[in-house]
Amino acid sequence: MLQGALVTIEISLCAMVVATLVGVVFGLISVSDFKPARAAIRAYVYFVRGTPTLVQVFLVYFALPRIGFELSAFWSGVVALAFNSAGFISEIVRGGLQSIDVGQTEAALAIGMTNRQSTMFILLPQSLRRITPPLTNELISLVKSSSLLSVISIAELTRSAQVIIAQTFTPFELYAALAVYYLVIISALSWLSEYIEKRLA
Q1: 103, 104, 71, 82: which is closest to 26 by C-alpha?
Q2: Which of 24, 26, 97, 179 is the most exposed place for a label (fewest CB within 10 A)?
Q3: 2-200 falls under which CATH superfamily?
Q4: How many of the other CB atoms lie within 10 Å of CB of 53?
Q5: Which CB contacts under 8 angstroms, 24+ apart, belong to 174-178?
Q6: Does this model's pTM top 0.70?
Q7: Separation of alpha carbons 21 and 82, rounded Å
C-alpha cells in the first residue's frame, strides 16, 4: 500500500498545482470586465458543480482520446481532478476578491491604476489570507477524490487496497489501514495550511 500512497501523493500534488493555477486565472477572469469570458467561466463552474466527479473522470478518460488527445491513465486522472477542483478554486478566488472593500478599488483607480492592476496588486494580495482556509478545504477534497481514480485502474491508494483485499480477503483491516493513510496525508496538508495562515497573519 505504500507504493499506492506515493502514487496518490504524486497525482494529488500534480492536480493541485494545475487546479490552483487554472483556478486563480479563472477567478481573476470572473471579476474582469470581459463579459464573454465571464460567461464562459460561469458555464464551466455550473458544469463542474452540477455533475459528479466520477462522471468527469470518465469523460476525461474516455472522451479525450476520441478527439485526439491520448493520455496515460495517470495524466487522465490529473486532468480530471484538476478540471473539477479548478472550478471550485475559481469561485473561492472570486469570492475572496469581491470580499475586499470596494474603497480599495476606488482608491487604486483614483491614483491611475487600471482595473487589472488594482485586482493584481491591491485586491489579490489582500485576499490571500481570506481564501487560504477554503482553498485548503478544496485541496483536501481533491486528495479524497483521488480515490475515485481506482475506477480507471490507476494504482493509487484505494486501488492498491482493493487488490490486496482480493488476495487476502481481509477487507476490514485493509480499509482501516487505508483510512489511516488518508488521515496522515490530509493531516500533513492541514498542518501546512495552518503554517501558511500564520505566516500571512
Answers
A1: 82
A2: 179
A3: MetI-like (1.10.3720.10)
A4: 19
A5: 174/1, 177/1, 178/1
A6: yes
A7: 10
